[in-house]
Amino acid sequence: MENGARVVVSRSFADFTPQATFDIKKCDLHRLEEGPPVKAELTREQGLQYYRTMQTVRRMELKADQLYKQKIIRGFCHLYDGQEACAAGIEAAINPSDHLITAYRAHGYTYTRGVSVKEILAELTGRRGGVAKGKGGSMHMYAPHFYGGNGIVGAQVPLGAGIALACQYQGKNQVCVTLYGDGAANQGQLFESYNMAALWKLPCIFICENNKYGMGTSVERAAASTDYYKRGDFIPGLRVDGMDVLCVREATQFAADHCRAGKGPIIMELQTYRYHGHSMSDPGVSYRTREEIQEVRSKSDPISMLKERMLSHNMASVEEFKEIDIEIRKQVEEATQFATSDPEPPLEELCNHIFSKNPPLEVRGTSPWSKLKSVS
User: Fold this and answer.
1) Distance between CA 269 and CA 205 in Å, rounded?
2) Domain Dehydrogenase E1 component: where (predicted)?
């Protein structure tokens, strides 16, 4: 029966709409004559790919929540569920050779930049097979052209401007996407970075992921102006619906074109929402109501919105989404098996990769009787 059902599904692929155009929310503009388009085209393949990406991040984060509660993941752990359209939409609009740096809520971007669920979960559990060999943990994962999560609030922004300077210097027509949250948006180092980026016309897309709360403080209580897209003053800005993957994709495409054309930096504010608390130590309901979270989930969940769009335009079937979901759950379960059985890194590796070459160095204070060396 299973096979029979499958055959019917695959035979009806021909009946699906291969491509559709959707109306998307108009962006608010700052110092721009015109903004991104208000219509977005989506092919069936793209739609399924975005769905798969967002659903994988969602399942991975829910698994991280579970492992944290079982005390298998320890320490800092900031989850990305609710904000998946930001990571998926940005990645859909830039090239793998472009650069991206973010804060510590980094699991989603680590995945969209090409790291497997297996390596991410193994990093969270501190195992050898993790993306940073089990020594980085939740906030410190890296990949080619991905400069990681950064644990210091706002510190990634000047680094991102520096990466954009390198892009300009190397002349390969690349851009750097520099992400920060509404909580970091009032820091002095951001404005210093804006100033230098504008003076030198750096190809930097500064993106504020505004999820409405910096830790437990709502944006209204933290910022005298919550128009984060205007806060670059002399830098053009866009305010985007960060819960719609198509809005994010079109706006990022627009911003990347702006930077590649040599017009200098641009600021994007993605209005989004996190379902979890700030980190795993924050239940997330002392400063906002459960009803508020539920309302966002029911009205503007990024995954449900994409799925409904595709179903209403006959671009995919309910069964197909179910099959993808089953496949993703299986993938996450297998990754979890690996992340809980892989060994932890041995003590001898504690001091490796401190230097790029191997200097004759003793790392003092690790323990009085062992002389550990840095090997790279």
Assistant:
1) 10
2) 53-347
CB-facing half-sphere around the CA of 329: CA atoms within 13 A: 6
Dihedral sign (CA 155, 161, 164, 169): negative
At 93, the amino acid letter reads A
Q: What is the pLDDT of residue 174?
A: 98
Interatomic CA distance for residues 121 and 72, integer angstroms: 11
What mean pLDDT do residues 305-329 have? 98
Over residues 144-150, the mean pLDDT reads 96
* Per-residue pLDDT reduced to its tens digit, 23-40: 999 999 999 999 999 999
What is the rounded distance in angstroms from the CA atom of residue 142 to the CA atom of residue 188? 26
Nearest CA to 245 among 319, 181, 300?
300
Please state the rounded mean pLDDT for residues 262-285. Answer: 97
**Rg of the chain, C-alpha, whole Å:** 22
Per DSSP, 317 falls in state -
Evaluate whether 211 touches 82 at the Cβ level (below 8 Å): yes
137 phi and psi angles, rounded to 5 deg: 75, -170
Q: Could you tell me which of 197, 79, 73, 186 has the C-alpha nearest to residue 127? A: 73
Domains, in order of start, for the chain: 19-345 (3.40.50.970), 347-375 (no CATH)
Mapping DSSP to helix (H, G, I), strand (E, B) and coil, where does residue 370 land? Answer: coil
Compute the mean pLDDT over every residue in the chain, rounded to the nearest whole number.
Answer: 94
Q: Is the pLDDT of residue 4 over 80?
A: no
Q: Are 245 and 53 in contact (CB under 8 A)?
A: no
Q: pLDDT (tens digit, 9 = 90+) per residue, 25-80?
A: 999 999 999 999 999 999 999 999 999 999 999 999 999 999 999 999 999 999 99
The answer to whether 56 and 121 are in contact (CB under 8 A) is no
d(CA 246, CA 50): 9
Q: What is the pLDDT of residues 319-335, one digit of tens each?
A: 999 999 999 999 999 99
Q: Which distant-in-sequence residues (6+ apart) come within 8 Å of 308 by Cβ?
A: none
Q: What's the rounded mean pLDDT across residues 110-126?
A: 98
Residues in the chain: 376
Q: Which of 125, 130, 124, 133 is nearest to 106 (CA)?
A: 124
Query: Closest Cα to residue 61, out of 131, 138, 3?
Result: 138
